[in-house]
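Study the following:
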Amino acid sequence: MEYLIRPLEQNEYHILENMLYEAIYQPDKNNLIPREVLKLPEVHEYINNFGQEKDDYCLVADFNGKIVGAVWTRILAGDVKGFGNIDNETPEFAISLYKEYRNRGIGTKLMNVMIEYLRNSRYKQASLNVKKKNYAVRLYKNMGFEIIGEDKEDYLMLLRL
């Protein structure tokens, strides 16, 4: 399967709303979380005014001109903090792929390219939050993320760059 990993262009920022919804862990396929969840401040902050902060960066997987996945980072340390917030210098990951493109190595490639970008940009670390039941926990561990905190449902994970 041929696809291109490339930066998200400014005229494509609107796609992040769909990508954010796809990033939400949905354990019950018969009882999906409604899209209104995107309006909650702690969720919406992942895409709100994306591209206006110096630390906002997004890569997409482009399959024949169609964006099928995205990984983006931003520092979510303002009034509304991200679920994976560590501090005001650590970018936080969000990643998603449309269902039909999962389990093909695209997510791994997106993550690897983003990690390399963050290293080259001199970040010391990156974080993310993931549901404990999410199969992606294994991917993140394989990429070097460590569990540094947890609650009943979630892991807080950190990657030292």
